[in-house]
């Protein structure tokens, strides 16, 4: 059982907090190896102290770091990032709150870097806001995968 509770310090409505909790829980379920421990219970209590954009990715990354630090069994490293598509088509990785509000679309994706013999990258969660073309969506996902791969490589060295 995985429970996620997010306190966004009045940055999000209660409905948005609940939706975010569900997305974070879904991401965590993909990388925790719960099949070996069917009675394992995990409760992640996340508090957003300051929200300058990319809140969903920050929550997922914080929960992942806490789970790794706790020594729970995992199937790789989970990283998340966001990409904002601005009105002129420019894509910004890890957008600020202002860039997110001015963007015509925002994509947030969770990427699992599996710990197997070969490199295996799996997109385990994605949320979108706004309107974008299919090509823009795929380009945003490619940028997010590149960004999260860099973060995962850094985490492996730490």
Automatic annotation (TrEMBL):
Against InterPro entries, the record matches this protein to:
ExoRNase_PH_dom1, ExoRNase_PH_dom2, ExoRNase_PH_dom2_sf, PNPase/RNase_PH_dom_sf, Ribosomal_Su5_D2-typ_SF, RNase_PH
Query: Could you give a GO molecular-function term held by this entry?
Result: RNA binding
Protein keywords = Exosome, Nucleus, rRNA processing
One BP annotation, GO = poly(A)-dependent snoRNA 3'-end processing
| Cellular localisation | Nucleus
Major location category of this protein: nucleus
- What is the name attached to this protein's record? Uncharacterized protein
Give a yes or no for keyword Nucleus in this entry. yes
- What organism is recorded for this protein? Ostreococcus mediterraneus
On whether NAD is a keyword of this UniProt record, the answer is: no
User: SUPFAM superfamilies this protein is in?
Assistant: Ribonuclease PH domain 2-like (SSF55666), Ribosomal protein S5 domain 2-like (SSF54211)
Domain of life from the UniProt record: Eukaryota
Similarity remark: Belongs to the RNase PH family.
**Cellular component per GO, a single term:** nuclear exosome (RNase complex)
Question: Residues in domain Exoribonuclease phosphorolytic?
Answer: 14-73, 77-143
């Amino acid at each position: 059982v995985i429970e996620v509770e997010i306190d966004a310090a009045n940055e999000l409505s209660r409905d948005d907090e609940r939706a975010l909790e569900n997305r974070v829980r879904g991401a965590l379920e993909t990388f925790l190896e719960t099949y070996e421990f069917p009675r394992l219970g995990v409760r992640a209590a996340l508090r957003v102290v300051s929200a300058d954009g990319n809140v969903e990715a920050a929550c997922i990354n914080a929960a992942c770091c806490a789970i790794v630090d706790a020594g729970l069994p995992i199937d790789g490293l989970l990283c998340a990032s966001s990409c904002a598509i601005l009105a002129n088509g420019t894509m910004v990785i890890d957008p600020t709150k202002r860039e997110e509000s001015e963007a015509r679309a925002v994509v947030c994706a969770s990427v699992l870097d599996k710990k197997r013999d070969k490199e295996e990258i799996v997109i385990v969660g994605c949320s979108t806001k706004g309107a974008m073309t299919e090509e823009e969506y795929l380009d945003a996902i490619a940028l997010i995968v590149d960004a999260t791969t860099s973060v995962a490589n850094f985490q492996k060295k730490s």
